[in-house]
Amino acid sequence: MNTDFPCADRKVIVALDFDDRRAAEELVERLGDACGFYKIGLELLTAAGPGLARDLVERGHEVFLDLKLFEIPNSVAGAVRAAGALGASMVTVHGMGGTGIMSAAVEAAREFPRLRVLALTVVTSMTAGDLADIGIEADTEEQVLRLARLAVGAGCDGVIASPREAGVLRELLGPDRLIVTPGVTLGPDVPAGGAAGGSAGGSVGGPAGGPVGGSAGGHARAGTPQAAFAAGASHVVVGRSIARAADPVAALRRARAAGNSCG
Q: Is position 68 annotated as part of the catalytic site?
């Protein structure tokens, strides 16, 4: 297991949640040397192909491929090896796929010492009601912890969960494993060229540092970088709060300051 923690300027991962490569590259250009870590999800990967990820790595950036792999173990292993060959630093596998899928991902990643396998616990858009719809009686926190335990047993480097579960996960996982939290907003005071908050909207003060007012951006369990880092997150993923800010570099610095203040 790779237990290296990020340097301060790479605790904040900027989500390239775009549907074409040109828009993603425009944000990368605006951020310049200020950003060292980007997330590429299924939308951009499908629209732009793997070339952007490779190019970002070649420029010295780290890349988080958020693939949420949930397939037969052989297919998951193949996808993880492909992510490693691109030079990715992180790749996600669905914890709900069980130990077999996660173990296959971990084994495949051994060929790539820099690649960290993270288990997605419960997607940040899901609530207890959504879990009940698929026959899971546990609430979201219980399910997150259950899947985190499975991830530890499978040898994953860390987990993906909302900011609201970062504290209980740090208690469970100890100091070494990574806890990466999407669903993060900088709050309404970010100067925005459009709707701020995409990853989540609002400011400190809601439950577990969640948003007070504003759009949740599709995340039912959102939070701020301050709350996430204070609770024990190793990284936060920030999307539209940076991408749609009038000054993306200033917005990124605000998010990074939250990580620096938490050590």
A: yes
